[in-house]
Specification:
6-stranded mixed β-sheet, 235 residues, 36% helix, alpha/beta, 10 strands, globular
């Protein structure tokens, strides 16, 4: 039996204020699967994530989370229903400790504090440090950990590897692979490094000027580097 549809987007036109960036986006993402969102800067990847979370302006179209229409709901209600967003900016509270940053978002469920610490031992070591005392890699671990502690059904990761040292990138890739393959999670990953994103996801879309120009299986596209290069270069 196939998994239910975790997220369905139909006829999405969205942007910021009166500006329209996304045009007629349609997507269906089954539960417990993962989607890579690829494309060059400025094609609408972050706007897509912001639209799902409720930060962008939806001009028309519908968004359903496990069959429930959410396009009219505010951000906090979407969060309560199971969407967690890790933005590019990380949005760590600088004057709160690591532990306080996470407890702000904590909800009962599959990800109690100690389980997050098991996933990120470095956060356990730094639990009393303030947000502004962390390295970029530690802040990214904290941003992901804070998302997980909210017990999400859908996890949105917006360029979580940007600007990080290779050793941190490798560690986070292992974490994402574990979350995708072993947890009851649906994951959308926006990432500039197409090969990294395709290595850990099931499905892929490529955006160009706010529209989906390619949709398929991640492994198929990964095995066709020439097509991948053309798709990204065309943006």
């Amino acid at each position: 039996m196939s998994n239910p549809i975790a997220l369905r987007l139909e006829g999405i036109h969205a942007g910021y204020g009166e500006l329209n960036i996304l045009e007629n986006i349609a997507l269906e993402i089954p539960a417990k699967t993962s989607l890579a969102v690829l494309g060059r800067n400025g094609v609408g990847k972050t706007t897509l994530m912001s639209t799902i979370m409720g930060h962008a302006t939806l001009h028309s179209g519908s968004i359903q989370l496990f069959g429930q229409s959410i396009e009219r709901l505010p951000v906090y209600d979407r969060s309560r229903l199971g969407i967690a967003y890790v933005p590019q900016t990380r949005d760590i509270f600088p004057s709160l400790s690591v532990e306080e940053n996470m407890l702000v978002a904590a909800r009962p469920g599959r990800w109690p504090l100690e389980r997050v610490y098991e996933l990120f031992p470095r956060l356990a070591e730094r639990r009393s440090n303030m947000g502004n005392q962390l390295s970029g890699g530690e802040q990214q671990m904290l941003a992901v950990g804070r998302a997980l502690i909210s017990d999400p059904k859908l996890l949105l990761l917006d360029e979580p590897l940007e600007g990080l040292a290779p050793v941190i990138v490798q560690m986070l890739m292992e974490v994402f692979k574990k979350l995708i393959t072993q947890e009851d999670l649906t994951v959308i990953l926006v990432e500039q490094s197409a090969k990294l994103a395709l290595q850990v996801t099931n499905q892929v879309i490529v955006l160009n000027r706010g529209q989906v120009t390619f949709q398929g299986l991640s492994q198929d596209l990964l095995s066709q580097p020439e097509q991948l290069a053309k798709l990204i270069a065309a943006n």
